[in-house]
Amino acid sequence: MRYNRELQNAGLKVDFAVMRKRGIATLSLLRFLWNDEEVDYLRAFMHETMLMSDWNFSEKSLPRNRQNEPLYLAIIYFGLSVFALEQTQDKIWIRVERDSKKPASTLKTLVSMFRGARDAVFRDLPWELLLQLPRDAFILVSYDDVVRARTSGVDSVLSVSTKVVNVGDFEPFFQDGSLKEDEHDTGHVERESQGNLAEDAMRRGIRASKCYLLFLSKTVFEGAVRMELETALQEEKPILLVHESDPNRVGFDTFSKYIETAPDAAKHLFRESESMPFQRRLYLAEAFYGELIARIDAI
Fold first, then answer.
1. What DSSP element (H or E) covers 230?
2. Would you tell me the crossing angle of helices 223-234 and 199-208 to the nearest 10 degrees?
3. Are 177 and 147 in contact (CB under 8 A)?
4. End-to-end CA distance of the chain
5. Could you say which of 37, 109, 176, 266 would form a disulfide bridge with 104 (CB–CB 3.0 to 4.6 Å)?
6. How does strand 239-244 pair with strand 212-215?
């Protein structure tokens, strides 16, 4: 791509070099790369999936006639894994450098990003994750088919073009677990299960703890959890609030409903504490847990 004659003829050779080196892209370059089609939509999509953000600083290495046009910081690597996204017809290709560190982890994060965008904007859009055979770029195999074959101990699987391929050839894709490990999370909160700790043991646990974490749900102010909350309030324990970022998930409700159903002794928590939205998507989860740990450490 860096030697593409059309790129040079368009006067964007320097722009492309800057993007490869620093991840900073000009609007002119994006229009060229996307054939000037659906540019606004693609920019919004990449912002939504955290693949791109506005760059509000000058870039002196760019040609003078593009010094003042909008600039964007595009993510082209995670850690030490360099990757590129390419769209052809109805496929989005994720290409990772061969010498990248933990490429499976990079793929997992990107798949999670696309799933997040799909669930937020394109809920009814059918999609399928295909794996490219490492030793033959023309052979594609359904990720789900490979997973089923690995689970059942089958050595071979059919590709999209009905070629028989070795399941073991796809091992690099599974070095960091499932690429879709956040897909089957229902977000359902169980009320109470058999074998719960005795009430006195639960109270002792609250008294011995540094703080109390309350995960808001439809039934959070009932039964054993209400008893725990009352104990935490009586013991004057710091209370951290976490809520589901998608109130439409089974078992959860709107924030106003939580405030309405909270015990009178606990209503002040919603005025005095900032509740953290729970993040289950891989590309957001690390930041969520980091912030949660930081808040606990600060107590």
1. helix 223-234
2. 40
3. no
4. 52
5. 176
6. parallel
Q: Which helix (H) or strand (E) holds 229?
A: helix 223-234
Give 82's DSSP letter.
Answer: E
Residues belonging to the chain: 299
Q: 128: which 2 tokens?
A: 């399928």
| Residue 27 near residue 70, CB atoms below 8 Å | yes
Q: Which residues pair with 175 in a beta bridge?
A: 177
State mean pLDDT over 10-23: 82
Q: Provide long-range contacts, Cβ within 8 A and 24+ apart, for 156-164.
A: 159/133, 160/130, 163/139
Q: How confident is the model at residue 189, as a pLDDT?
A: 44
Greater pLDDT, 72 or 188: 72
Averaged pLDDT, 2-23: 78
Dist. CA 116–CA 285, nearest whole Å: 12
Q: Please tell me the distance from the alpha carbon of residue 277 to that of residue 237, in angstroms, as a whole number.
A: 21
Tokens standing for residue 90: 């109805």
Indicate whether 123 pLDDT > 50.
yes
For all residues of the chain together, what is the average pLDDT?
Answer: 78
Measuring CA to CA, how many Å separate 261 from each of 191, 224, 296? Answer: 16, 16, 26
Question: Comparing 46 with 268, which gets the higher pLDDT?
Answer: 268
Cα distance between residue 35 and residue 38, in whole Å = 9
Return the ∠ at Cα 234 (arms to 229 and 238), rounded to 5°. Answer: 65
Read off the pLDDT of residues 135-171 as tens digits, 9 standing for 90 and up: 887 888 988 898 888 888 889 989 988 889 998 888 8
Which residues fall within 8 angstroms of residue 149, CB to CB, at 6 or more apart? 155, 156, 157, 167
- DSSP of 103-148, one letter per residue? HHHHHHHHHHHHHHHHHHH-TT-----EEE-TT-TT-EEEHHHHHH
